[in-house]
Amino acid sequence: MMEGRTTNSTMLKIENLKTHFFTQKGRRVVKAVDGIDFSLAEGEILGLVGESGCGKTVTSLSILRLLPAAARIVSGRIILGGENLLEKSEKEMRKVRGKKVSMILQDPMVSLNPLFTIGDQIAEPLKLHKKLAGTELMDRVRSLLSAVNIPSAEIRRREYPHQMSGGMRQRIVGAIAISCEPKLIIADEATTNLDLTIQAQYLKLLKEIQERNRLSMIFITHNFGIVARMCDHVAVMYAGKIMEKAPVREIFNSPAHPYTEALLGSVPGVDYNEERLITIEGQPPDLADLPGGCSFHPRCEKATDRCRVELPPEFKLAENHHSRCWLCEK
Question: Which domain holds residue 92?
Fold first, then answer.
């Protein structure tokens, strides 16, 4: 399990971010991200975890401002390198995406264009942001392919995505993400479609690239094994809110929120010998019709009457450890 690293400065700071989806002519509002706060230091990896539909991906798309037409950021600030991304025009954001912030998507076959060669797709951001051309451009493409352990780079750059294995496609997406030397990379379930052996190799590669280039990274996952291996800090999301955030070791050793405890309890250890896994009863709530009080209370074994009617604030338990639960009130 990783120790938190000492870092010099804040790379990303998100304050009271709310991203809602408006459907049926505004009569139905889905609060996909509902007032979250977190920060990310230079060279640090933050694990963003939680069940499907809790708001992890919408958070990342909000940072890049690549939201669907029905979605809108209704409040908050996204400070990257001292600049508020929500105050930038679309033209200015095109200079941010790929150059300052890159994203590795879950399925490389969605993010790679089947009609263009691998070399053309790696070269595109380099031509746009770095103004590279000719021999210098091709040398950089080959260098990036080698950096992500793609053999025979000169041959592979002329091939198409369908000619690559799943692991190679995922590494090529990683090469595109680091091509313009961004300061922040968002990896959204980047290992989900990989088998365990390739997954371990890919994580090792990402870690080496992150440390070599001192990148900040947001690692979106539901896999606590990846969190333990990759991350410095963890933010646990549920129903559009961050329920708990802390250094990775504190999350594993002293989880404060019942939801965090339940997630950790549902992961079998190496010595697990029970007939059935521990499960979290019930389903996540409808984000357009959230329950009163704490949104986790219908599934929480520790819920009290207060939890059902009052939304808990964020309590500070220790340096860099916060939890949104009435049980943490001192």
Answer: 10-100+182-328
DSSP run (H or E) holding 201: helix 196-213
DSSP for 75-104 reads: EEEEEETTEEGGGS-HHHHHHHBTTTEEEE
- Residue, of 321 and 281, whose pLDDT is higher: 321
Q: Taken in order 125, 184, 201, 166, is the CA torsion positive or negative? A: negative
pLDDT digits (tens, 9 = 90+) for 14-47: 999 999 999 876 678 999 999 999 999 999 999 9
CA–CA separation, 46 and 5 (whole Å): 12
Say how many domains are in the chain. Answer: 2
Is residue 95 included in any domain, yes or no? yes
Helix (H, G, I), strand (E, B) or coil at 197: helix
CA-to-CA distance for 169 and 111, rounded, in angstroms?
10
Of 291, 237, 248, 233, give the one whose Cα is nearest residue 59.
Answer: 237
Task: Extract the tokens encoding 119.
Answer: 């070399």
pTM: 0.88
Give the CATH number for residue 280.
3.40.50.300
